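Bumping with the actual sequence this time:
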Amino acid sequence: MESEKSARSVPEVKGPEGRLVPATDPRESHPREPSLAETERRRWNKTSWAVFIAALFVVMIVPYWGGRVLALNETESVISLVRPIDPHGMALISWTVTVVLATSLAMALMEARKVYWRVLFLVAFALEQLICGVGLLRLNFWNSTYVVYGDAASPINASNIGVIGAAVGVAVFAVLYVGLLVCIRKDSPLNILTRSWSALTLFFVIEIIALLVVEFSGLSTLV
């Protein structure tokens, strides 16, 4: 009887999952705080990421293949669609799609729980692959586009140049950002340059410079 009374007299507190536990049990009344890695593992949705990876493979292959089919089998339709567009405009369109692709990918990595960034990345990736497929993008695409499109190849070439210019901008940014991470010490005032908002600002500055080079160097009007 005395042991039952003493057990009842022990105060209880809320432990894990909201259940009452004796306050004298430190493992139950003061549970260990989960680490950041454990918290992220609990938040990680395996099904969502599996669907994303499967969709990534689809948009990597299908739009490019479809673009090549359009270029080779529906050439006149493609020409009639792109002929009214100025080459500078085509370069701007493809540059914009590629920049949105890179930005959404970066945001999807930083904000892994926000699904809409992954959706935007997949949409932009599909559009970029379609543009590359229609433009027959490869190292010597000028020869390929001239064979397929003839004198109407100028807007198609401009779209390829826009993609390449944006991709070069991404590469330059990656090299500069990694260099900043390596060279700047954590206690240095210049460490502010490695913050996310500073990195995004640097990225867009580099991409705008790349766009100016594409538009005003004459590359976008080459046939």
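The tokens above came from a reply further down the thread. The two ends are 98 Å apart (CA to CA).
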